Amino acid sequence: MQFGVDGRNFEVDLSDDNAERLREVLRPFIEAGRRLVPPGKRRRRKQKHEDGPGVGSTMMGESNDTRQP
Q1: How far is Cα 17 from Cα 62, in angstroms, rounded to an integer?
Q2: What is the distance between the alpha carbons of residues 42 and 35, in angstroms, rounded to a whole number?
Q3: What are the sequence ranges of the domains in the chain?
């Protein structure tokens, strides 16, 4: 089982019974907390323009390559 406390991550091998006991003890804290997502894993919303498709999308046959020849 992996867990973190005070910014440190730990892993401990527990029997099924002891893993369940630990989950039961931690349950109130987990329910009161919020899950952290690593910075690189956050989803970004696509912004939509009122006059066209969302950012990053292209119409069929168009290229989104903006480099000059």
Answers
A1: 59
A2: 12
A3: 2-37
Q: Which residue type is seen at 69?
A: P
Can you point out the beta strands (E) in the chain? 2-5, 8-11
Helix (H, G, I), strand (E, B) or coil at 48: strand
Tokens of 9: 């991550």
φ/ψ (deg, to 5) at 23: -60, -40
Distance CA 63, CA 58 (A): 7
Q: pLDDT per position in the chain (69 positions), as tens?
A: 998 999 899 999 999 999 999 999 999 999 999 988 888 876 666 666 566 555 555 555 555 555 555
Residue 38, pLDDT score: 80
